[in-house]
Amino acid sequence: MASIIKKTIRGKPYYYARESKRVDGKPKIVWQKYLGTPQQIIDVMTGKGMDNNSRAPSEAIITEFGAVVALHSLAQRLRLAKIIDKHVPKRSSGPSIGSYLVTAAINRCVAPRSKAKIGEWFTGTALRRLLDIESRQLTSQRFWDNMDRVSDEAIAKIEEEVTAHMVQEFNIDLRRVLFDDTNFFTFIDTFNQHCTIAQRGKNKEGRRALRIVGLALLVSADFHVPLFHRTYPGNQTDAPTFNGLISELSARYKAICKEAEDVTIVFDKGNNSLDNMEQVEQSPYHFVGSLVPTHHTDLLAIPAKRYRSLADDGLEGVRAYRTKKEVFGKARTVLITYNDNLFVAQSQTILRDIGKRQSSLREIQARLRRWQEGKVRRGKPPTVKGVEKKVAALLKRQHMKSLFHVEVTEREDLPGLKYRFDKSAWERLQKTQLGKTIIFTDNDHWNDAEIVRGYRSQYHVEESFRTMKDPHHIAIRPQRHWTDQKITVHVFYCVLALMLVSLLRRELHLKGIDKSIPDILDTLTEIREVGVVHPPEGRKKNPTIKTVLSRMSAPQHAMYEALDLGRYRAR
Questions:
Q1: Is residue 118 part of a domain?
Q2: Total Cβ atoms within 10 A of residue 254
Q3: How many Cβ atoms from other residues are within 10 Å of residue 117's Cβ?
Q4: pTM score, whole prediction
Q5: Number of structural domains found in the chain
Q6: From 137, 288, 305, 480, which residue has the greatest number of CB atoms within 10 Å?
Q7: Among candidates 176, 105, 179, 69, which has minimal Cα distance to 529?
Q8: SS3 for 59?
């Protein structure tokens, strides 16, 4: 609680504002601020030396309240710190491992900081009076001394227990769960031999020169709340990753659900393989997935007149054709869909790519012509092999090889280039493939609209990854760690952060407030706690501190009331 205390130094009184709380069962000062001598305080409060309009205190103590308190409340409902401490008990005095991890997770949600700066951030938040931890204990060294105790086995057990409790406490709908994987680039040095997780591979953000860390994530379709995660080497491709996790995904499902037949896992075509599908068949999950269109040209050739509109089912602009086909050794329900919006988007993307390739090919032609006409004589002359390599790079993008016919010729030891854009191939591509998605499932009893909506929910896990790549909220990057254990712990509390913000969004939705995660956090962060020093009243000899909240806008007040944050106001 907040109070004013007097210190006598060399016979003179000085006043301080301070907050204290019990730590390890004993009262302890967790925050202190110098206010001044009695005369200085009187001068400020009576306005001595100031004009009549300047009688306010000389300073106000302003701290973050709204977002950190909302997330702290959810962490308490999850019993997050208690479950962490159960599996990673602290052997010495001081804050528990759970306190450190919860602090790190909340920091990732609202204002990602390096370990060296978390203490400074913590001091400026209401968490200083809500958590059993002091800012001076949040140094980088103290943090990692504690995090070194968190093993991979402990992370798995913590996540399983937290997830099981969360499903019950928040009544999470698990009829559909979504799986996907991605990777995050790091700045770990190429020659660092202490790290096996960060490896070079296919970087999904195009940073090919950097080492990457893979993350597999299972989330609920119900507001994409994380249910399971694994960190894996960045050079591992999607299908083997999924294959290695199916048994763990099955075990996780059995730990949180009672009726396995009611749950459908949704995944993308990158996870397809015969072995994977056989394992999914043996798991407790039903599934919805997609197929590579070019592997099923017979389905793409089905005429548009045989498709039926799904507008009456609420899917405007979507048409579908349903059939049965053997896929990965089993007869499956297959749905070929055509979406007007998808057709337009894909056409615009390909037309842009076509324009760029035409421009580049014309430039290569003109450059070769100048060499042939003798207008260029200096430098290394072009070769057929060199030109073919440039053309191959240009046409690497999807569909470009089928749309452009390029011939590299040789005349008088100098190459020439001819190309033609194939209009008939472009028309055929538009007619057979663009705007189409091929979905397959073992949910034979689902209608067409249910299958489409089930597959579309895959978007939610992709949204989770976008959230984790947001530099302002959650932000796995930058990873300032270079050992496997530290990277694994870092990713773990980032996933815990995603769990907290997803639950926060879900709780507000249930109260009629629909906002994106960044909007929610930005709105709540602006709710501040303001400590104001007041002069003595009546017979009191010492000044007092009164804490108030900053003036709230209508959206802030609505969230404040919906989340019942008044419980956490300083009294």
A1: yes
A2: 12
A3: 14
A4: 0.78
A5: 3
A6: 288
A7: 69
A8: coil
